[in-house]
Amino acid sequence: MELEYWLGRGVEAFREWARTYGEFASHTAMAVDEAACEVAFEELTARLRGSYPFFHPCYAGQMLKPPHPVAVAGYAAAMLVNSNNHALDGGPATSVMEEEVVEQLAEMVGFAAHLGHLTSSGTQANLEALFVAREARPGTGVAVSAEAHYTHARMCHLLGVPVHTVPVDDRGRMDMVELGRLLSTGVAGTVVATTGTTALGAVDPLHRIVPLARRYGVRVHADAAYGGFFRLLADEKADGERAPVTPETGDALRAIAQCDSVAIDPHKHGLQPYGCGAVLFGDPDVARFFRHDSPYTYFTSRRPHLGEISLECSRSGAAAAALWLTLKLLPLTPDGLGAVLAAGRRAAVRWAGLISASPYLDPYQPPELDIVTYYPAPPGSSPPRLSRVGVASKEVLHRGMNAKEDPVFLSVARVTADAFAARHADAVEDRDDTHVLRSVLMKPESELYLERLHQRVEQLAKAAWPAPRRYGP
């Protein structure tokens, strides 16, 4: 699509609407000098060139990519109105759009009934879910896996809720035996299961966690900030053109429907600009925990205002408009938005195969979603020595991102010696932890660029072992 055209359409639509309210004088205090604006804008665009190329498939580092042009156009058009979806009188049009997209998200995850809203981030979404968990199970703690996002420990500290860390298995998923042992003590009132850990893309066995938690009367929150949209692929069958999630991962994703709450980030796999998260609750009655009043806010409608079921106050109505427009064109179906995720999933599966066959790279573990983890293979038949694996991985990272020609942008993940040895029994554990390379293939263009990416990373890995520089201890 021609972004410039649709941005222009948005500006013109706003001007046409504004003219219906009659002319008014602009205040001189708002005036800016055009020449000065030219200089400042040139400086802005020049400084933005210091960013990493998140739009390009040579960037295969963190969970970053640009929003879809449709989302940009929708956001810009609504941003000119600048509505606030806290109260219906602050965003009468965009609040309805938010309700509609939340309904679609709830249907995607399988909630028969729901209460929910968009948030400014996944952190905020998880905070609200943990707040409800505290109110619903007062005096109890929260169980999280050792691979859960650090936001849970931070938000529980903020809420004054104890955190109980559950060990993980040899694929980074919550250990069910250890979880059962913890729940039997009665110290936890809520389990947080992660569908798509940020380091490895691991999916906790939610289909086994839910019945275990119910046995002890414990709530379950799904942190699906990263992996939630893969629910669109959970029912897909493998064929020559598809690489769906594994049956076990599919079972886990389908089990989100049985959870008490879920956090999901449209600004990750939903093609949205930052910040656009969402929190959903399976029981609409949890609205009682948010109940509050304002003497000047909630008076334009008897319908619940979004701010009455949220901890956040001011929130961008433009975020709702952008997601609403995106889902009009790329709906939450396997052939709609699901096709975007499927491309990244296929790329991850194919790259894992190329890495396994490479003389210069070794896989750390198979990808469950679209995150690939690997490390430079030791020369010859030498076993991986953790001290050298970490140095070589950082060497690939730094050489790739600082290359003057054909740069490539990766990331690293710190893993413990025990975790590495659980996956590679021949490892020489000469330090307590090490770093492995990590690539997030969340852009569908990664599928088309994969061979070039693989060749470039192989070149870097081949060069990393002979005389690596040291980056830190």
What does this entry look like structurally?
This protein is α/β, with parallel strands linked by helices and 473 residues long. The chain has helices at 3-19, 34-48, 69-79, 92-109, 122-136, 151-159, 176-183, 206-215, 247-254, 317-329, 337-356, 386-402, 417-423, 445-464, and strands at residues 115-119, 141-145, 163-166, 188-194, 219-223, 261-264, 277-281, 361-365, 371-376, 411-416, 433-440. The strands form 2 sheets. Strands 1-7-6-5-4-2-3 form a 7-stranded mixed β-sheet, sandwiched between helices. Strands 8-9-11-10 form a 4-stranded antiparallel β-sheet. 47% of the residues are buried. The model is unreliable at 467-473 (pLDDT under 50).
What does the secondary structure layout of this molecule look like, with pairings?
Elements: H1 3-19, H2 34-48, H3 69-79, H4 92-109, E1 115-119, H5 122-136, E2 141-145, H6 151-159, E3 163-166, H7 176-183, E4 188-194, H8 206-215, E5 219-223, H9 247-254, E6 261-264, E7 277-281, H10 317-329, H11 337-356, E8 361-365, E9 371-376, H12 386-402, E10 411-416, H13 417-423, E11 433-440, H14 445-464
